[in-house]
Amino acid sequence: MGLDNLSNSLKDAMKKLAGKTVIDRAAVDELVRDLQRALLSADVNVKLVMQLSQSIKSRALDEDLPKGMNVREHVLRIVYQELVNLVGKEAEFSLRPQKILMAGLQGSGKTTTTGKLCRYFQRKGLKVGAIGADNFRPGAYAQLETLCKKINVPCYGDPKEKDAVKITRDGLAALKDVEVVIVDTAGRHALEDDLIEEIMQINDLLKPDHRWLVIDAALGQAARDQAKRFHEAIGIDGVIVTKMDGTAKGGGAMSAVSETESGIVFIGNGETIEDLERFDANGFISRLLG
Ligand code: GDP
């Protein structure tokens, strides 16, 4: 995981608390200050860090001590629970026939993740296929086709066709025997209006079961604007944070999820087709605090 610094600072903060003889208001204040510093360095949104601080302080000082627990254990448990709260609930989906629309900017890892998702559903025993509707980035379709070929999954695309909506329509017809259809879309470099317009049209045609936003973990706070804009356009119901293996700043992308009222579905942690991990908030925080 790329969040080693965050993990170490959180562990240090917890250890410091565990070593205190008395856990009083001053000790809780100090713990909260340490947590703030750790989370802000990992680029977690300031507002969310402040909310977490308030919750920890008021719960640690006001909540009744659960039976059989000492103050120290009680405070550590609150910190754990509030960190789980901060990363949010994992976004849910079922292992049944469905259509998934992939959104995100160019370079976010959308095409790679589309391949990884094909692999994921294939391993779960579902018949899966991909549609390469990114006809803006040269080579995007060839890249997707190569990934799909490797795992023997059908892939529809037409790099000469300019109309991404038509590609999607033709792809749906070509893949009518497939149970899980995943549509890769164009990213561009920024959130231009025509990009948003195009993905809205694809969304109207496809009527997907899920609209997942792919965000590069290294983006930091800029992730919030992207999440907000895509959410307003098509209603994002899950976020995939990619490149978690390569950054210390994943907190920005992870906290951008709060803009979408959804949760994280998967985490990308490497360049191969197998490097996709189902997100689990409890497991993630346990590992950070490990
Ligand atoms: P797209 O423009 O959004 O389709 O982006 P690509 O799928 O082409 O990915 C851009 C770059 O990011 C490629 O070099 C990928 O190999 C790389 N990439 C994607 N996901 C991950 C990840 O989880 N970890 C790492 N280290 N690299 C990734």
From TrEMBL:
It is an enzyme of class 3 (hydrolase). It comes from the Archaea. Its main location: cytoplasm. GTP binds at residues 104-111, 184-188, 242-245. The keyword GTP-binding applies. Transmembrane segments: none annotated. Residues 2-87 form the Signal recognition particle SRP54 helical bundle domain. Residues 96-290 form the AAA+ ATPase domain. Residues 97-290 form the SRP54-type proteins GTP-binding domain. It is found in: Cytoplasm. Keywords: Cytoplasm, GTP-binding, Hydrolase, Nucleotide-binding, Ribonucleoprotein, RNA-binding, Signal recognition particle. It catalyses: GTP + H2O = GDP + phosphate + H(+). The keyword Iron-sulfur does not apply. Involved in targeting and insertion of nascent membrane proteins into the cytoplasmic membrane. Binds to the hydrophobic signal sequence of the ribosome-nascent chain (RNC) as it emerges from the ribosomes. The SRP-RNC complex is then targeted to the cytoplasmic membrane where it interacts with the SRP receptor FtsY. Belongs to the GTP-binding SRP family. SRP54 subfamily. Composed of three domains: the N-terminal N domain, which is responsible for interactions with the ribosome, the central G domain, which binds GTP, and the C-terminal M domain, which binds the RNA and the signal sequence of the RNC. Part of the signal recognition particle protein translocation system, which is composed of SRP and FtsY. Archaeal SRP consists of a 7S RNA molecule of 300 nucleotides and two protein subunits: SRP54 and SRP19. This is Signal recognition particle 54 kDa protein. It comes from Methanocorpusculum petauri.
